[in-house]
Amino acid sequence: MTVPPIEATQFGASAAPVRAPKQSMDGEVFLHLLVTQLANQDPSSPMDTNQMISQTTQLASMERMNTLSATQEASLDIQQRLAASSLIGREITTVGEPPITGVVTAVSFAQGSPVVTVGEQQIPYAQIIGIAAPAAPVPDPEQDTTPDTPPEGGEPESETTEPNAIGA
Predict the structure, then answer these.
(1) Is the model's pTM score more than 0.85?
(2) Quick one: 118 exposed, middle or buried, by C-beta within 10 A (0-12, 13-18, 19+)?
(3) CA distance 78 to 84
């Protein structure tokens, strides 16, 4: 009786996860390389401590630069949101053929970058090329604009003054 050979796929060896290489160097990769370098160094000529300190300083600088970059991106996002929200009620003009001009009625941040609403149209914030205050309504000449109520205090102002009754 012959016994068939055992294949590696029967025991799940082919189901091992495939490790994808990192596309960028980060602090974790640097530390792994440094530890590997220290573990495999020649005991008769160890790594120079000045060189090791220099490399760890470079790692710290890289980490700080990454943190600063992330902070600047967050700051830019907040500034764009503030600028876009300040457009509500203002008249804008967009790039394009034909250009769209109208008053911003809403701002949405759902798509990542701000999108303003003019009438029924959704316009990306990056397409705005002009901002103006909305045109003031033209007063109707047939409509009287003088107030009918007396000023604060309840009585109309008079030009004459009454003598002081105190001490008379």
Answers:
(1) no
(2) buried
(3) 10
